[in-house]
Amino acid sequence: MCGIVGYIGEKNCVPILINGLKRLEYRGYDSAGIGLIENGNSSIIKNKGKVSVLEETVSTLNLHAGLGIGHTRWATHGIPNEINAHPHSNEKNTLFLIHNGIIENYQTIKKGLQNLGYNFKSDTDSEVLVHLIDSFLTKDYSLSKSVQLALNEVEGTYGIAVIYQNEPDKLVVARKGSPLVVGLGEHENFIASDVSAILAYTKQVVYLDDGELAVVSKDGFTVKTISDKEIEKEIHEISISLEEIDKGGYPHFMLKEIIEQTESVRNSMRGRLLVNEGTAKLGGLADVVDRLVNSKRILISACGTSWHAALVGEYMFEQFARIPTEVEYASEFRYRNPIIEKDDTVFLISQSGETADTRAALHEAKNRGALVLGICNVVGSTIARESMAGVYIHAGPEIGVASTKAFTSQLIVLALITLLVARKKSLSTSEGKKITDELQKLPDKISEILKLNDQIEQIANEFKDSKNFLYLGRGYNFPVALEGALKLKEISYIHAEGYPAAEMKHGPIALIDENMPVVFIAPKDSTYEKIVSNIEEVKARGGRIIAIADDADGEIDSLVDYVIKIPRTIEMLSPVLNSIPLQLLAYHIAVIKGLNVDQPRNLAKSVTVE
Ligand code: F6R
What proportions of the chain, in percent to the nearest 5, are helix, strand and coil? Predict the structure, then answer.
C-alpha cells in the first residue's frame, strides 16, 4: 500500500523524493505529497492524483532542501483529496509525518487529543500520529523519544517517517506491519517502503523489523526497539539493477512482465534442476527437507493470484508427493482458529512478501508449531525473513499491479518443491526425469506462445465491449480459469468469473446466451473429453467460445468460435503455459478500452493492510 521515501544529506532532496515516489507509485496512486525542511523553514506540497501532478506543482516552485519525506497514498480512512494526502503536519507546520498502515485506535486517541485542544484537518487515521508526537514534543521530549512514546499508545500497523524543524539533523522512522528500509550513502542516507525507490542512489540497505525505530542522520543511523533496546543491524547488498525496474521501452510494465516470462521462468529453475537424477535442489529448504518430506499434511496460504498458484500446488503435492494438501485464503485462515499440528508444513506464497493477511497466517502457523516455509519473490521481504526457511521464485521485480510473471514463477517453484519431495518419497527417477525434461522446455514454449500476441489482440478487439466473461477449466486448469478471470476483472473492469468447467451445469449455465463469452482452458489432458462436453453445452445455448488448446488438437476448431493454440506440456505444468494467453487477453482488452493497465483503479501492488 502507500509508498514512503525520505532523504537526509547534502543534496537537494526534491528530485530524489519525486523520483522515489514515481518508483513507488504502484503502491498507491490516489494522492501524493512531500514535506521539506531547510534552514529553519518547512514546506509541504500535496496533490490529489498521480505523482505526475505533484511533480508539475513542484516544478513551478523553486524548492531546495537537504531533509524531506514523500508519500504516495492508497486511501484507507478518508477519500483521496489534498487534505487527506500525506505528509500530515502539526499546527505550527514544524513537524511532518507520513504513514503507511492503519491506526486502529485512532478514534480514542483523536478524542483525547481534541480534549487537549488539538484541531484535526483531515479524515485520516494517520493524522492522530502527528499530533500525538507533537503532544510529547511540547513536553520537551526529543523527536525520537516523542515518536517512541506515541507509538507505545498506538494499536494497529504502521510504517512511518517523521521530520521536525527543531531537529533538522535527523529523520525518524519506525515500523510495525509495514515495510521500511534504510538506504546508506556517503554523507547522505535514505529511507523507503521498498528498495525500488532508492535503488538509483544506493544498493546498501538495512531492513527494519517490526517494533523497531531508526534515527537516521546524514552520516549514520541507530536502531532501537520501540521499548528502547539498542539493536545492531545487518547491512544487505541489493542485487537488483535499475534496468530491471524500468519499463525498458515497453508501453506498460504488465506487457514487459508478460514478455519477460521466457526468462523469469528460466531464472526460477536456474541451478535448481538435477536433470540426471530427475529431481530438484533447493538450497533454501536443505535444512528442513526431512521435516517437509515427513509432513502429515501441507497447508498453503496466500491471497489473490498467489492463492491461485497455491491451488495448482495442491494438485501437484497430492498427485506426486502424496501428502494431503489444503489451500486457504490467508485472510480466512487466521480467523477461523485453524487446526495446525506440529507435523504439518505451512507454505505462505507471496510475490511481495509483505501482504498483511499472509503475514498474519504465517504468525498463526508459527505459533502453533508447524514448519513454516515462504515462497516469495521480493528478496529480503518480511514474509521471506519471518519464515523458518523458504524458496525465492527469482522472477525479478514485478511492478505492474496485476501479477503475471510472479504467478508462472510461483508455479515453477511449486513444481520444484513437488519434485524434491516426491522423489524422496515414491516417485521414480524416470518419472522425475519426465518432469525435469518438460520444465527445461518451458521457456521455448513460452516464446512460441508470445508469438500469438497479434492473434490474441484481435480476439480482444472482438470482445472488448462484453460486460461479463466466464472462464472454465478442470483439474490443474481450474485455478488457471480463476486467474484468467481475476486478470480481466482487475485491469479491464469487466465482470468475470472462473469456475471448474463441470460446475457450470450447477448454476452459471443460466447466464449463457449470445452475449456471454466463455473462455475454455482445454488442453488435451485427462479431462479433455469432459471439457469438450462442456463446450458443447455452452455452444448449444448460443454462448461465444474462446478456447486455449494444444497446437496438435484438430478437433476443437470446429467446436469453438476462437481458438488459441499453444504448445503442449505435461498436465502438471500446463497452467504455466495456459495462463499466458489469458494474461495477454486481459492486457489487450484493457489497452483497447484505454485503461491504465499498470495502475488499475482502487488497487495497489502490495496489500499491507488487513
Ligand atoms: C492480482 C494480484 C493480487 C496479489 C495479492 C497477493 O494480480 O496481484 O491478487 O496476488 O494481493 O499479493 P502477494 O503475492 O504480494 O502476497
Answer: 40, 25, 35
Query: 3-state secondary structure string, 148-186?
Result: HHHHHCCCECEEEEEEECCCCCCEEEEEEECCCEEEECC
Q: What is the pLDDT of residues 19-32, one digit of tens each?
A: 999 999 877 778 99
- 406 C-alpha to ligand 1 centroid (Å): 9
Same domain, 479 and 461: yes
CA of 353 to the centre of ligand 1 (A): 10
Which atom of ligand 1 sits closest to the CA of residue 352? 15
Ligand 1 test: best mutation among 26, 303, 347, most atoms within 8 Å of CB? 303
**Closest ligand 1 atom to Cα of 606:** 15
Which ligand 1 atom is the nearest neighbour of the CA of 487?
7
Q: Does 389 lie in the same domain as 492?
A: no
Asked if residue 433 and residue 455 are part of one domain, the reply reads no
In the reported structure, the alpha carbon of residue 487 is separated from the centroid of ligand 1 by a whole-number distance in angstroms of: 11
Instruction: Tell whether the torsion through CA atoms of 130, 132, 136 and 141 is positive or negative.
Output: negative
Give residue 403 CA to ligand 1 midpoint distance, Å: 6
- Strands ordered across the beta sheet of 181-184: 41-48, 31-38, 67-73, 3-9, 188-192, 181-184, 204-207, 236-237
Which residue, judged by its Cα, is nearest atom 9 of ligand 1? 304
What is the C-alpha separation between 375 and 373, in angstroms, rounded?
7
Please give the number of the atom of ligand 1 that sits closest to the Cα of 305.
10
Pair (68, 134) in one structural domain: yes
DSSP class of 319: I
Q: Does residue 379 sit in the same domain as residue 312?
A: yes
First-to-last CA distance in the chain? 11
Can you tell me the distance from the alpha carbon of 335 to that of 226, in angstroms, rounded to the nearest whole number? 27
Q: In this predicted model, what pLDDT tens digit does every residue of 582-597 receive, in sequence order?
A: 999 999 999 999 999 9
> What order do you get walking across the sheet with 212-217 strand by strand?
88-89, 95-100, 158-164, 171-176, 212-217, 220-225, 230-231
Q: Which residues are catalytic?
A: 2, 605
* Mean pLDDT across 467-488: 97
Q: What integer pLDDT is reported at residue 346 of this predicted model?
A: 98
Q: Which structural domain, as residue segments, surrounds residue 320?
A: 248-447
Which residues, judged by CB distance below 6 Å to any ligand atom, belong to the binding site of ligand 1?
303-306, 350-352, 355, 358, 402-403, 486, 490, 606-607
Task: Supply the residue whose CA is at minimum distance from atom 4 of ligand 1.
Answer: 304
Q: Are residues 61 and 143 in the same domain?
A: yes
User: Both 232 and 253 in a single domain?
Assistant: no
Integer Cα distance of 99 and 172 in angstroms: 12
The pTM for the full model equals: 0.90
- Tell me what the pLDDT averaged over the chain comes to: 95
How many A from CA of 489 to the centre of ligand 1? Answer: 13
Q: Which of 447, 477, 497 is the last residue of a domain?
A: 447
Comparing C-alpha atoms, which of 275, 580, 572, 571 is closest to residue 445?
580
Q: State how far the Cα of 511 lies from the Cα of 524, in Å rounded to an integer.
A: 27
Q: Domain of 527: which CATH number?
A: 3.40.50.10490
Report the amino acid identity of residue 530: K
